[in-house]
């Protein structure tokens, strides 16, 4: 089976969700993974890498986010500008990572690594790393706004629950770069194995300014036990440019001939 990243090189795909019910609420329970002994008892998320599987419907949209009038107007303005030819590029064309939640929907593998008090998700796309702290800390009172946010996690039985806040509003909410979120976006993800080689991730997004109700969705990743993460350097041979007047363009001369 070919890697999707080898079939679709450099593709920036909008986050795509399939509709799912709201997650159930469970009490926190061991294991918490704060010592190497506890880490050894955690479910095996770490062998090999995970990828959204190819096939019909792999990136088919599910339930659409319910936008507030203000953010629906922002989306319409973006779409109108695209139709008029005034929006030619999105940030990914210039190698800016999409941030959460879209980074988790890219057609590239990811690797999950456990350590005492921290879980790391290494994403091949844009060579991004998400740090999820499981040492019992709370979110900062005033977090710095970043692409992937501030993430803390805990275990509910064999499910990893990740709570993230502190996102820069420069990133898309999903599906379209014109679909925006505010700095109050709050994301809760629930990771669990449905079989030894299938990882289900249920995601619930709340944003009191951008959404009229929480948006809950899910996706499935398949394990490739003998794969490793490849190097992804978006800037290499990137031909997108901005001219002296700030207009986006692309250099069509093949590399090495300019």
Give a topology summary:
Blueprint lengths: L3 H4 L10 E2 L16 H5 L8 E3 L17 H15 L26 E6 L2 E6 L4 E6 L16 E7 L2 E7 L6 E3 L1 E5 L5 E10 L2 E9 L8 E10 L15 E3 L5 E3 L8
Distance between the first and last residues' Cα: 37 Å
CATH class label? Mainly Beta
Q: What low-confidence regions span 5 or more consecutive residues with pLDDT below 50? A: 4-27
Largest sheet: 10 strands, mixed
Q: Roughly how much helix do the residues carry, as a percent range?
A: under 10%
Strand content: 25-35%
CATH-level-4 superfamily name: Calycin beta-barrel core domain
Radius of gyration equals: 19 Å
Q: What are the secondary-structure elements, in order, as H or E?
A: HEHEHEEEEEEEEEEEE
Number of β-strand runs: 14
Structural class, by secondary structure, is mainly beta
How many distinct helices?
A: 3
What is the oligomeric state here? single chain
Q: What CATH architecture do you see?
A: Beta Barrel
Explain the overall architecture.
The protein is mainly β and 258 residues long. It contains 3 helices and 14 strands. It is globular, with a radius of gyration of 19 Å. Mean pLDDT is 83; it is low at 4-27.
């Amino acid at each position: 089976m070919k890697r999707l990243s080898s079939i679709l090189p450099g593709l920036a795909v909008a986050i795509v969700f399939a509709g799912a019910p709201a997650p159930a609420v469970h009490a926190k329970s061991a294991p918490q993974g704060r010592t190497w002994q506890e880490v050894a008892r955690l479910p095996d998320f770490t062998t090999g890498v995970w990828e959204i599987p190819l096939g019909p419907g792999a990136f088919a949209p599910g339930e659409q986010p319910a936008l507030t009038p203000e953010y629906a107007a922002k989306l319409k303005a973006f779409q109108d500008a695209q139709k008029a030819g005034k929006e030619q590029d999105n940030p990914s064309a210039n190698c800016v990572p999409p941030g959460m939640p879209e980074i988790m929907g890219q057609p590239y593998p990811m690797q999950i690594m456990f350590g005492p008090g921290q879980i790391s998700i290494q994403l091949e796309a844009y060579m991004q790393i998400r740090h999820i702290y499981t040492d019992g800390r709370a979110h900062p009172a005033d977090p710095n706004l970043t692409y992937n946010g501030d993430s803390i996690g805990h275990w509910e039985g064999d499910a990893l629950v990740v709570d993230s806040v502190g996102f820069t509003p420069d990133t898309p909410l999903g599906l379209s770069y014109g679909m925006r979120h505010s700095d109050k976006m709050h994301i809760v993800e629930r990771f669990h194995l449905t079989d030894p080689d299938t990882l289900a991730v249920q995601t619930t997004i709340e944003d009191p300014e951008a959404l009229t109700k929480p948006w809950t969705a899910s996706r499935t990743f398949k394990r490739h036990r003998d794969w490793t993460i490849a190097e992804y350097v978006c800037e290499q041979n990137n031909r997108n440019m901005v001219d002296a007047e700030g207009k986006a363009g692309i250099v069509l001369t093949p590399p090495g001939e300019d």
